[in-house]
TrEMBL record:
<feature type="transmembrane region" description="Helical">
    <location>
        <begin position="47"/>
        <end position="66"/>
    </location>
</feature>
<feature type="transmembrane region" description="Helical">
    <location>
        <begin position="401"/>
        <end position="422"/>
    </location>
</feature>
<feature type="transmembrane region" description="Helical">
    <location>
        <begin position="172"/>
        <end position="193"/>
    </location>
</feature>
<feature type="transmembrane region" description="Helical">
    <location>
        <begin position="367"/>
        <end position="389"/>
    </location>
</feature>
<protein>
    <recommendedName>
        <fullName>TRAP transporter large permease protein</fullName>
    </recommendedName>
</protein>
<dbReference type="Pfam" id="PF06808">
    <property type="entry name" value="DctM"/>
</dbReference>
<keyword id="KW-0472">Membrane</keyword>
<feature type="transmembrane region" description="Helical">
    <location>
        <begin position="136"/>
        <end position="160"/>
    </location>
</feature>
<comment type="subunit">
    <text>The complex comprises the extracytoplasmic solute receptor protein and the two transmembrane proteins.</text>
</comment>
<feature type="transmembrane region" description="Helical">
    <location>
        <begin position="280"/>
        <end position="301"/>
    </location>
</feature>
<keyword id="KW-0997">Cell inner membrane</keyword>
<feature type="domain" description="TRAP C4-dicarboxylate transport system permease DctM subunit">
    <location>
        <begin position="7"/>
        <end position="424"/>
    </location>
</feature>
<keyword id="KW-1003">Cell membrane</keyword>
<dbReference type="InterPro" id="IPR010656">
    <property type="entry name" value="DctM"/>
</dbReference>
<keyword id="KW-0813">Transport</keyword>
<feature type="transmembrane region" description="Helical">
    <location>
        <begin position="321"/>
        <end position="339"/>
    </location>
</feature>
<keyword id="KW-0812">Transmembrane</keyword>
């Protein structure tokens, strides 16, 4: 009964337009007020315990690194390199550039919102100028932004690891193959949808035509973007090699971005650094507020044995563990329509991780799948963060994109289902490196 009241009050507050962090908090406070077994002190206790984590310090550092890369022009260099590499050779060339750029930038910032905003501001106007429809450009940009949470580093993987006491390094490595599968799948869908719409655009260069042989141009583009390609190696290598924690790796990412902007490219000024710091502070405050309130929500779920309640209800349908997992993923996918991905992970990561262990799934495989499906909510209306970012850049209503983005999200969901039955695709790299 407590769980039912908790969810009804939470969704009622969301329907009234209350911000998600406060809706989570008020719903939790209502349960504490109604339940005499819950003491008021757990509010402050869990609120501060949720954000009192050294690992979570990695989040503002990765956000800051992404903002610095945008301010220093490194993001534009990534786009230029991706364009030289694939843009001129394929139909729907700029769509491929968009997806490949997101895959590269994912290795720098680890933030899906930073990825989508950076790529969208550069590529959505370019795609519209080249003749692509706005809804197509937004759908490609929004869905490719999800790759930022899979290819390491990943803020969501840091968050999931912190909440479930799993190795962040293993979660990082577990996201590599799924990240590339997401990218490859999106390229296939972009091609199919592009052909159905009659697109046949091959481009010379986003930033302008270049002189000389192709290999020289590719080498110049590679050298220009080389720092962006090196940063992920430093981050992942430091964590996997045991030289750095995720937080220290975030500091390294910031240091690399500052050195590149101040000394190599000389495009960073104190004003730009201040603006990047300001945006980082705002985004970090939002994320930490959601974490703090959602930790209280998650604790109430755990105290009321939510995992066994969920298992018991699903068990009425089937006792097969893959049916269990399929229904859990379906629940997350549906909740993603109305919940922010960060809040959803914080609320359900701990109880769902316990369910995964009960069902006998590898915790890294289970965790990566949970993160992947949760990410799809960032691309589905009405609360899809990445979709809203793209629509605001393209200046089109959300309703215009829904039909187009369904193709891309549907394909990503199929990848999640495939990986559910092939755990080796997720665990191969972590097992190889950590000898699990």
């Amino acid at each position: 009964m407590t769980i039912t009241i908790l969810f009804i009050s939470f969704f009622a507050l969301l329907a009234l337009g209350m911000p998600i962090a406060f809706a989570v908090g008020v719903a939790s406070l209502l349960i504490i007020a109604l339940d005499p077994t819950l003491l008021a002190y757990i509010v402050t206790s869990k609120f501060f315990a949720g954000i009192d984590s050294f690992t979570l310090l990695a989040i503002p550092f990765f956000i800051f690194a992404g903002e610095l890369c945008t301010e220093s022009g490194l993001t534009a260099r990534i786009v230029h390199f991706a364009n030289v590499l694939v843009g001129r050779f394929f139909r729907v060339g700029l769509a491929y550039v968009n997806i490949l750029s997101s895959m590269i930038f994912a290795g720098v910032s680890g933030s899906i919102t930073a990825d989508s905003a950076a790529m969208g501001s550069l590529l959505i106007p370019s795609m519209k100028k080249e003749g692509y429809d706005s809804d197509y450009a937004v759908a490609v940009t929004a869905t490719s932004g999800t790759i930022g949470a899979l290819i390491p580093p990943s803020i969501l993987m840091v968050l999931y690891g912190s909440l479930t006491s799993l190795s962040v390094g293993q979660l990082f490595l577990g996201g590599i193959v799924p990240g590339f599968l997401f990218g490859a799948t999106l390229m296939i869908v972009a091609y199919v949808v592009g052909r159905l719409r009659g697109y046949d655009f091959r481009i010379s260069d986003v930033a302008g035509a270049s002189e000389g042989p192709y290999w020289k141009e590719l080498l110049r583009a590679f050298r220009s973007a080389s720092i962006a390609l090196i940063i992920p190696l430093i981050i992942v290598g430091g964590i996997v090699g045991g030289f750095a924690t995720p937080t220290e790796a975030g500091v390294l990412a910031v240091a690399c971005a500052l050195i590149a902007g101040l000394f190599f490219y000389r495009t960073l000024s104190w004003r730009r650094i201040y603006e990047a710091s300001y945006r980082t502070a705002l985004l970090t405050a939002v994320v930490m507020a959601i974490i703090a309130f959602s930790t209280l929500f998650s604790d109430i779920l755990t105290r009321n044995d939510f995992q066994n309640w969920l298992l018991g209800n699903i068990g009425m349908v089937s006792e097969n563990r893959y049916v269990y997992l399929t229904l859990i993923l379906l629940m997350l996918f549906v909740l993603g329509f109305v919940l922010d991905v960060t809040a959803m992970l914080i609320m359900f990561a701990a109880p769902l991780s316990a369910i995964g262990l009960t069902l006998g799934f590898d915790p890294i495989h289970f965790g990566v799948i949970i993160v992947m499906v949760s990410l799809l909510g960032a691309c589905t209306p009405p609360v899809g963060t990445l979709l809203l970012i793209g629509c605001s850049i393209a200046n089109i209503p959300l309703t215009r994109v829904v039909g187009t983005v369904a193709w891309f999200v549907g394909a990503q969901l199929l990848v999640c289902i495939f990986l559910m039955f092939v755990p080796e695709a997720v665990t191969f790299v972590p097992n190889l490196v950590f000898n699990r």
